[in-house]
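ok here's NADPH--cytochrome P450 reductase, seq below lol
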Amino acid sequence: MDEVAAAAASETATGAGDAAAMVAGSAPMFGVLDVVLLAGMAGFGIYWIYFRNQSKPQPPTTKGYTMQPNLISPKANDNSFITKMKASGKNIVVFYGSQTGTAEEFALRLVKEAARYGMKALYPADPEECEMEELSKLSEINNSLVIFCMATYGEGDPTDNASAFYEWLKTEEPDLTGVNYAVFGLGNKTYEHFNSMGKFFDKRLEELGATRVVAAGVGDDDGNMEEDFLTWKDTLWPAVLDFFGLEMNLQEISMRQYRLEIPDVLPEKLFTGEIARLRAYQTQRPPFDAKNPFLAQVTAWRELHKGGDRSCMHIELDISNSKLRYDAGDHVAVYPVNDPALVNRFGELLSVDLDTPISLVNIDDQSTKKHPFPCPCTYRTALSHYLDITSNPRTHVLKELAEHTTNFEEKQKLLMMASSSLEGKELYQQWVLHENRSLLHILEDLPSCKPSLDLVCELLTRLQSRYYSISSSSKLHPESVHITAVLLKYTTPTGRINKGVATTWLASKKPLPDEPPYQVPIFIRKSQFRLPARHQTPIIMIGPGTGVAPFRGFVQERLKVKREGKPVGDTVLFFGCRRKAEDFLYEEEFQESIEEGVLTLHTAFSREQPDKKIYVTHLLKEHGEYIWRILGEENGHIYVCGDARNMARDVHDIIIEICSKYGQLASSEAQAFVKKLETQRRYSADVWS
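and the structure came out like this:
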């Protein structure tokens, strides 16, 4: 009953009660008709309160978090990994937190290998799609084990699909007594918060009463992630067998996870590159995100380099009809398409018609992941839109390829690289990683290797979106997103020309007169890389090369504020490139900001002087006293964007030195001061390796 109806019923009942009392106390005042009328009113009031709603059909229950009993809850059952494990007799579940697909790939390999050791594992589980509150119930399953493959993302953050589980585990206190676990963390040592998620899950699970079966593994993407994983995996299974008192009994099983089906469907029922929803690109519907990207039209494309043999593109994408919003410092993600020449090469080498419709179907009917990529589609669509055909294959892929190689020497080479021997690891490091061979290159160099194309599609990992720091301000360009990207192209030790997947594709999107505009699937990812809320707060920006991209947006924003007549704090940019006449990005724009009194610019041109290379790090040391005044005395902010492996690390060390020298702080105090800046988000980094 709604509030208005309840109030009306209350008023009616009160009036009837008063009338009845008057009748009882003073009968002569009323006639028979009056009594009948009053009694009728009282009866109507009672009916209104107690019986009115019983005669009406109740509306169907709507979705929501209400305290109502549910006899049937299919969604909960769909997400219940405990129910699935019990129903299928499985005792291992592998969860992954993955941003680029590597952690998910490792999780799948562990699931497959569990069967070789006589154990049954549930298909790799996405925490976002599971009732993770059930984790404590895992102890109900005999000899059960949960394995976490958790990547660290950004500034020590969980991946998108693991963020809700991370927050739950951090804030809640579930009793995990009797739960057995193992953790493999993925990260990159060039980042400050290396492997923070792996460390968190390993420690937190133990704090909540779970039992660690084997020491946590650590994978370093700056080194050799594959070797790190193999080394840990070789300790995992013996430790698991020992923990549960099981005998080592390796079994030869099929490692296929999907079976090939040739669907008989109309062309309009085939996926053609959509990420999740069929025909999503024909019928665009907001909200737009990673699973539902927006097709943005390319409205501008220009070359930023004025000379030399390299290329840097400035691209503008129209988001006017998307309802997408962004702030300076956010990222735009682009879904690229593979080079058609490489795609066609697969068809040539394996003698397959790439326009054949296919569907790869999971052989595990308990899995929530029915297909490795949107199906049904053609081989051509899969290889063009969904699969990473240019990365170095991992060792388990080589083992699978060996089974389809007829030449003895070629087969032994693959098996050697797939083994855990020192010689095999060295060969893999040299032949695959150092010489930069993709799976396609291996098929070319080992001509007797002829796997089925559906197996190749299963072995290849998903093609990931590429993230770019947005190089515009929404305050100045609310209906467009700008990208600044260097075209990647290089020669490998084998003499092949390798090209960047996304930048090569974007390079072909230059608008042509009298031609329909090109479209690019995108979505926006929010960032913590933000200008201070107060425009008067001074800022220092350090961005060599394309690291200047977000700072173009920062400068645009402050220039707009200045033109509105509002005060703006010091805005200082340290920019570096090779030569002023060749690759000084956005020189004219920055000069305009300098002339209007918004920007102070310090430049380092590393190749201008033949006897000495000057980088932004040299400039920072020269202006150390000023930098300390901004950070230590004026509560300013400092931003770094660019290469994480060298530049960002060097800048971090120099800032500590500056704080120590000009702030008269001991080394430990200077480090603590910079750490405090980071905690307060006054020292922000947007870096990549």
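fwiw The chain is about 40% helix and 20% strand. kinda neat tbh
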